[in-house]
Design a protein that fits this description.
This protein is of the alpha+beta class and about 220 residues long. The protein contains seven helices and eight strands; from the N terminus they run E-E-H-H-H-E-E-E-H-E-H-E-E-H-H. Strand 3 and strand 4 form a beta hairpin.
Length: about 220
């Protein structure tokens, strides 16, 4: 089976991360147009620190090629595709951190047309679980713009705990921006997974469908 970039899609299937409404899979060259369209939006790009704005097709092409060549030991990147309606919902990654002690860092974003439907939490849980289960992470860090309340809520629902504040260079803002740093330890994640499994058994399907953990960008 070939995707529209001419790649063997079956080569990636072993690394797919299925969730209730999404398939997270490694990026392909056929994702370039959708990636550039979603990120060439100031409401999305300004919530991230490593994404330029304007975001051009060349930027998306470079990101896809870089992530496809990334060694597995250094982390992983995924795009999230809606199972039912199709279309690229967002993207997420985890990678070894050079600046934060003894851990990995994660980031994720959701295309604006999918905001307000709980996809941010779904993507975040998937990439956090993968970082601990397959990536060998013992500690995860994330940096959140201080004006991104939605991203903060998602981080807290994933179990991240506030650590401190600081400044970080933002490509989109072309300068330093204030952030809050959050951390999640493996032992905390494992406890939450065990507790969540017990809670899920007690929830009705209607209660699960009514959850709305919206995120704009992280």
């Amino acid at each position: 089976m070939q995707d529209d970039g001419g790649e063997a899609a079956s080569d990636d299937e072993e690394r797919w991360l299925p969730t209730r409404r999404l398939q997270l899979r490694p990026p392909r060259r056929g994702d370039v147009a959708a990636l550039s369209a979603a990120l060439d939006n100031p409401r999305v790009a300004m919530g991230l620190v490593n994404v330029p704005y304007p975001y051009l097709r060349n930027d998306a092409e470079a990101w896809v090629e870089r992530e496809r060549a990334r060694p597995c030991a250094s982390g992983a990147s995924y795009v999230a595709v809606a199972r039912r309606e199709g279309g690229l919902v967002g993207a997420a990654f985890h990678s070894r951190s050079d600046s934060w002690p003894d851990g990995f860092e994660i980031s994720f974003w959701i295309a604006e047309r999918f905001w307000g439907r709980g996809f941010g939490t779904e993507v975040a849980h998937a990439i956090v679980d993968h970082a601990f289960q397959a990536g060998g992470a013992e500690r995860l860090w994330c940096a959140i713009r201080v004006n991104s309340a939605a991203a903060r809520r998602v981080a807290e629902k994933c179990g991240f705990q506030f650590r401190d504040t600081g400044m970080i260079r933002s490509l989109a803002a072309r300068g330093a921006v204030p952030i809050e740093r959050f951390v999640l330890e493996r032992r905390v994640w494992a406890s939450l997974k065990a507790w969540g499994a017990e809670g899920a058994m007690r929830r009705t399907p209607q209660e699960a469908d009514n959850e709305d953990d919206a995120i704009d960008a992280a």
